[in-house]
Amino acid sequence: MSETAAVDREFLPAAVGDWIALLKPRVMTLVVFTALIGLLLAPGHLNPVLAVTATLCIAVGAGAAASLNMWYDRDIDAVMRRTATRPVPAGRIAPGDALGFGVTLAVASVLLMWLATNIAAAVLLTVSIGFYVFVYTMWLKRRTPQNIVIGGAAGAFPPVIGWVAVTGSLHPMPLLLFAIVFFWTPPHFWSLALWANADYQRAGVPMLPVVAGAKETRRQILLYTALLLPLSLAPWWLGYVGPIYGAAAAALGLGFLVQAWRVMRDRQDPGGVSLTGDRPAKAAFRYSIAYLFALFAALAIDHLLA
After folding, report:
1. Are 252 and 291 in contact (CB under 8 A)?
2. Three-state SS for 171?
């Protein structure tokens, strides 16, 4: 019997914590925060109860996508050290239960978003969930090293959905927020992929370090971070936000660029493999999370003090 088949047949009782783990709550925190900023910046007014409901729908939709991702990826999760203890590959939740859980949450989140706000926000939430599950998880992840570049669009939708939940329409500002998260995703995720490279090799996932090597991945991290800096300043240049955000974006972007440069200059063997245990990549990964939280917090502070 294969390892995957064994995992699929040996189920332990699922605790509440396992069902919560299916939602990837740490990832959900960032999703919810960026969505809240989209809600806050949008012109107009949304009843506070409806605003909370819209945020909850985005959170549940993100959790649904995560659950469906864990259902589909249970075979590769089982052979990766970083993911082997997740509820499905560890046998604590049956694959069919994870699938049903994810589908139920996805449908409920979209329908409630439609009822609480408008059809445009519900459609965008549907597209976001579908993009993560069908385009990234099922199509791109196992086929191309550009998986996280294109698939990163799924994680860039929340601030747009938040904005549209209030206004029912699009505007250049939420599209800029989408672009910022989109260009932030590759250096964020490739920093992780550098030090989780052995996991991806075992699982046969063609992440950039596996296919193009560590040296090229470091170059791409620096390139995308350099592109992110002027893009993050665009809302200020275009007059959508004030100098508080502009100053914060410049400082945070330069800090991110320093982190990316350290990844690029990390001591490497001739093949580009780190001789320091990928310490700069780990530091860059941690900084990237703090960067996005701080950047969107600066948007909120700038808006509230304007």
Report:
1. yes
2. coil
Mean pLDDT over each residue of the chain, to the nearest integer = 93
Task: Find tokens 């698939």 and name the residue.
Answer: 151
C-beta separation of 285 from 227 below 8 A: no
Residue 237 contacts residue 221 (beta carbons within 8 Å): no
Collapse the DSSP code of 268 into the 3-class scheme (helix H, G, I; strand E, B; otherwise coil) and give the result. strand
Q: Which of 13-22, 53-62, 177-186, 240-249 has the lowest mean pLDDT?
A: 13-22
Give the model confidence (pLDDT) of 248-288 as tens digits: 999 999 999 999 999 999 988 877 778 888 899 999 999 99
* CATH code of the domain made up of 1-170: 1.10.357.140
Tokens of 143: 């086929």
Return the half-sphere exposure (C-beta side, CA atoms, 13 A cut-off) of residue 261. Answer: 7
Question: In angstroms, rounded to a whole number, what is the distance separating the alpha carbons of residues 135 and 150?
Answer: 9
Q: Are 117 and 83 in contact (CB under 8 A)?
A: no
Which tokens hold the place of 244? 């508080």
DSSP annotation of 14: P
